[in-house]
Write a sequence for this structure.
């Protein structure tokens, strides 16, 4: 960690402009620093895949996310870090409208995917969730064969026709199905381990294999964005490192947004890191090196060095 002079943030008088947007609630153990707009105004070359503007989420009276604005660059890994309860999962779920399923949740603000508002009437949520896929903390394969886990989504969406009816109608996609299964499993670095047991039940795989299967299942429907909520926290170090390698590879073709509690993991795999702190605010967002070597916020410094959280 570098020897930055953090006293500067304490002595600087906030300007009127930063003052209005920057008042932040604090909790015991944290400093009473004010968040400055420029700490989270991350500028990057290239296109924003997702553009989030003034996002607020309430669960009943509980204000879980406060005015988050954040552009996410395409074909890269964005890590979301912060202490438990600071709103990381809430934020992630806003990116493909999974919070719509939570009755108590109220979402205000804007999220654009490739410049198109996803919170507008008429958005096809099935199509949206195909483009913005999600991988959860606990691997959750269907209790079906490995093959069916992959082909279930495309079959459901009508992209693959197999089975008796399809054969009778002369539009049998069994070959396409095998190709898709193989390609998705290869992309998820699982093919070699399962190619001889595609018809075995997926629940017979190890935890790490199951998680890669879930990633393959997500890839099979052809997403642009992959959201991952602590995808390796239930796995051992070897399985974790496979997932980490995979995430880095996926970022060549996909936009990956990953929540993690592991600082080392965020530092290893991400291009940029967003730090959320207690109270549901985005405090700092920048290149991962900058966040870990020379953060602007004292609270971010304290959090990543393990002083709280
Ligand atoms: N379905 C829900 N109903 C009501 N409140 C919720 C719901 N989901 C989350 N919350 C609340 O919103 C806040 C943020 O929760 P969230 O799960 O987004 O945090 P998190 O940063 O992902 O935490 P963790 O690191 O523990 O997973 C918390 O106060 C939580 O209690
Ligand atoms: Mg969470």
């Amino acid at each position: 960690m570098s020897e930055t002079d953090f006293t500067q943030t304490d002595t600087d008088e906030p300007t009127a402009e930063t003052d209005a947007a920057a008042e932040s609630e604090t909790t015991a153990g944290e400093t009473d620093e004010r968040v400055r707009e420029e700490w989270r105004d991350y500028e990057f070359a290239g296109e924003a895949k997702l553009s989030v503007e003034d996002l607020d989420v309430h669960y009943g009276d509980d204000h879980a996310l406060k005015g988050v604005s954040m552009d996410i660059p395409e074909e890269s890994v964005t890590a979301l870090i912060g202490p438990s309860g600071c709103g990381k999962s809430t934020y992630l779920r806003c990116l493909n409208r999974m919070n719509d399923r939570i009755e108590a949740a109220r979402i205000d603000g804007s999220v654009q995917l490739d410049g198109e508002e996803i919170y507008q009437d008429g958005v096809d949520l099935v199509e949206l969730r195909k483009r913005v896929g999600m991988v959860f903390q606990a691997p959750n394969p269907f209790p079906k064969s490995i093959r069916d886990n992959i082909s279930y989504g495309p079959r459901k969406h009508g992209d693959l026709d197999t089975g008796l009816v399809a054969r009778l109608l002369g539009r049998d996609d069994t070959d396409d199905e095998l190709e898709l299964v193989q390609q998705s499993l290869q992309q998820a670095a699982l093919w070699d381990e399962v190619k001889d047991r595609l018809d075995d039940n997926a629940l017979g795989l190890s935890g790490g294999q199951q998680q890669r299967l879930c990633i393959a299942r997500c890839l099979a429907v052809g997403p642009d964005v992959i959201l991952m909520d602590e995808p390796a926290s239930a796995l051992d170090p070897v399985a974790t490192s496979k997932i980490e390698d995979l995430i880095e590879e996926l970022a060549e073709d996909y936009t990956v947004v990953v929540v993690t509690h592991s600082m080392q993991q965020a530092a290893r795999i991400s291009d940029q890191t967003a730090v959320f702190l207690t109270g549901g605010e985005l405090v700092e967002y920048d290149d991962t090196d900058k966040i870990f070597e020379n953060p602007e916020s004292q609270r971010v410094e304290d959090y990543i060095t393990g002083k709280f959280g």
Remarks:
- Residues 174-187 form the longest helix (14 residues).
- Residues 37 and 106 are 25 Å apart (CA to CA).
- The chain has two domains: 7-141+223-304, 142-204.
